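Sequence in, structure out. First:
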Amino acid sequence: MENDNGKAEDGMIRTRTRVVLVVIAALLVTGGWFVTTKALDAAQEGESPQRRGEASVPVDVANVVRGNIQEVRRFSGTMAPQAEFMVAPKVSGRIQRLLVDIGDVVERGQLVALLDEDERRLQVEEVQAELSVAEANLEDARSAFELRQREYDRIRSLRAEEAVPESELDRAQLEFDAARSRLRVAEAQLVQRQAALQAARVRLGYTQVVADWETGGDVRVVGERFRDEGATISANQEILSVLDISELKAVVHVTERDYSRLSTGQEAVVRVDGFPGEEFRGEIVRMAPLFRETSRQARVEIGVPNEDGLLKPGMFVRAGIVMQEKEDAQVIPRDSLVTRNGSQGVFVADREGQVANFVEVVTGVEQGGYIEVVSPELDGPVVTLGQHLLADGSALRIQNSAEGFAAGNGDGSAEVMQ
C-alpha cells in the first residue's frame, strides 16, 4: 500500500512540474513578443531605441553621389522592315523557274522568276502576221488612191475644156473620195496592228518577273516565297516578298499620357530576346496622328540601323525611350526610401556613423534602382538595409564600408545608365 501511495505521489509531482514548465515557456514567449512589438511600435512612432536603452541597429549604408540620371519609359512591340513589297506577275501563267529563294539578296531590277512564254510568243507571232496583212492592205489602198487621184485630175481638166459632161466629173469625184477613205482606213488599221504587236511583246516580257523598286538602296533580301515552280498563277498573284532590312523600325504603341511626352528625334534603346545583353540604338522617326478607339493607343516607329543584319523583322522588342535627363543630379539607391508618419524620406547616418536621422526628401527622376533627390542636400550616407527598424535618432551599427553604390565612379560622381 505504501509503495502504491508513493508512486501516486511521484506521478502527481511530475505532472505539476510539467504544468509549471509549460506555463513558464508560455510566459517567456509572450514576453519576447511584447518586447519585440514595443520596439517596432517605438520605431514607427519615432521613439528612439537609444533613449529607451535598446541596442544599436545593424544596417548597410551607401554614399550619396552626383551624376547624370535618365527617366526611361519601357515599351514593347515588334520589329518591322523599313520597306516591304510583294513581287507578282502582271500576266497569268505557269511558273517555269524561280531564280531566288528565302534569304537571297536581290538587286534592283533583277530577274527573279520565269513564266511559261509559249502562249505569249504565239500571240506575238499572230499579231505580227496581222500587221503584215495591214501593211499590204495599206499599199493596195495607197495605189488605188493614187490611181483615182490621177483620173480625177484628168477628168477635171477635160471638164474645164467642156470636153466631158458634168456627170463624168461627179463620178470621178466620188471614186476619188472613196479611195481616199479606204487609204485612211488602211493607215488606221496599220497603226492598230502596230500597237497590238507592241502590247503582245510587252505581255511576252511580263513572263520575265523582275524585282524593282523606286526609292532606297539597290540591294534588298527575299523575305518569303509563296509559290513553287510548276504552279499556275493568275495575274497579280504574289510570288515573293522583298524586304529592305538595312534599317528596321521598332513599332510600339503608346498611351495618351506617354504620347504627349514623345517627339521625333528622341533617343531610344532597343533590346531583343535573340541577343540578350546587347543594346541597339535608335530614335523616334514617326508618330501616328491618331489613337485607335479599341486600345486608345497610337503607333510610334523607332528607326534602328541594322548594317550588320543581326536584327530581323518580326522580332519581339523592348524599347526604352528617354523621357528626360538630369545632369549633376543628387542620386541615391531607391531602396533607401522609407515612410514615417506619412512622409517619405531617408535615414542619414551622422558623421560618426552612430546615429540615424530621418530626413524628408523630394524625389525626381527615377531610373532602375536609383532615384534623384531634388531637395534637400543630404549630408552623409543613407541607410539602404535595416531601415525598417529605425526611427529618428536611432543608434546604428554600420556593417559595410559605405564606398557608394554600383553607379558610383569612386570620385563622388555617377553615371546612372541601363
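Second:
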Amino acid sequence: MVTLRFLCLTIFALGSALASPASALVGQYLEFVTKYHVDADSINASTLRAQLEAMLTQRCGKDASCPTTAIYSDLKALTKTLPDASSSFLSPIDLRQLVTSAQSYSLGVELRGEIVYRVAPDSSAAQLGLRRGDQVSAATREGVSVNLGSSFSDAKPITVRLERDGKPLELSLTPGLGLQALLLTPEAKLLDASTAYLRIPSFRVPGTASRIHSLLSSLQSRNPKGLIVDLRFNTGGYLDEALLTLAGFQPDGAVMQLQSRSATSTYSLRAGGVETIVGESIKRSAVSFAVRWQTQAVILMNSSSSSASEVFALIMKRGGSSIVGEPSAGRARYAALPIKLSDGSELRLAVTRNAYPNGDPFPQNVTPTEQVKDDPTLLNKGADPVLEAAVKLLEK
C-alpha cells in the first residue's frame, strides 16, 4: 500500500501511436480513470471515451500538433462529472501558481469577503494592530487596488483602509516571506477559565499533529471543563496528520478503513500513534509527545470544511463529540491522490474510499448535531454565532 504523504505517481507518455500531444494526454486520462478510480465499475468507459473523442475533435480537429493546453479547461470540467466530489485536474500553470503563491511575499492576512478572519503572528499586519473582524474598505499599492490576501513579488508597502467599531482606520502594511504558511498553523487559547479553544486551519503542513498535541498539553494544564475544536474553512490535507491528531482525543482501536480497488487498509490508534494494516503489513507513525484530552470536545464546521477535516469530524462524532455549524463540503467519502501526467499536469483522482472499521462507507459530508449558519461578516460586529452556540453547549 502506498503511503498517503508524498504520494505522486509519475506516468510517462503512452507512445507515438497517438496523433498529438493533446490526444496522448487524453489517452492517459482515460486509462487512469478507468483503471484506478475506486468506483471505476460505475463509470461507463465507452461513454467517457466518446466524450473525450468529441472534445478532441472540437478543440483540435485533425491538427497533429494540437497542444495539451487546448484541452485543459475541458478536462477540468469533465473531471467534475466523475462519481465523487474529490477528483480534480490541475494544469502545469495551476501547479506553478500553487508553488509561486507559497513562496511569494504576502501580508499573512486571511480574508472572508471584506472581513479579516485571521492575521499571521509576527507579520506587519499583526504588529500594527490589524485584527480579526476588521472590515477592509480599500487596499492600494502605489495607487493601484490590490487584494490583501494576494501574493506579491516584493515587499513594497500596502495602504489599507479599515472600518473598526464604526470608525475608519488606515494602516501601512509591509508584505513578508513565509507568512501564508503561518496562516496554516494551529493556534490555541482559553476563551474563559472553563473553555479552551483550538483552531486547526489545515492538515496540509507536516508536523501539524505534533504541534496540536503540544497545544493540547498546554491547554490541559489550565484545567478547562471543555474544548472547542474549530475546523471551519479547513479544506483538509494529509490524512495521517488528521489521524495523529485524533489520537489525542479517541481511545485506542480501529477508526477507519481505506478501500481501493485492490486492497483495504485499516487505521487504528495505538498509544498516541497510528497503526496502518494492509494484509500482513503493518506501518506505525506517532508524534514525539502524545497527549490524551480528558474533557468534552465540541467540533465547529462550515460548508468549506472538507476532506481530512471531514474525516476527523466524522470519527469524533462517532466517538460522542457534538458538531456545531453547517453541513460540510461533501468530500468525506473519498481520498483523491495525485497522478502526474506526461505534460506535467496532475490528475487528483479518487482512488480510495473512506469507510468505518466495519466497512460501511463514510457519508458524503458531516451533518452537524446543532446546525448554525456561519456568517463571517458578523465578526465585524463582534459576533460569532457558531462559536457562541458551542460555548453554550459546553456550559450545559
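Remark: Confidence is low (pLDDT under 50) at residues 1-18.
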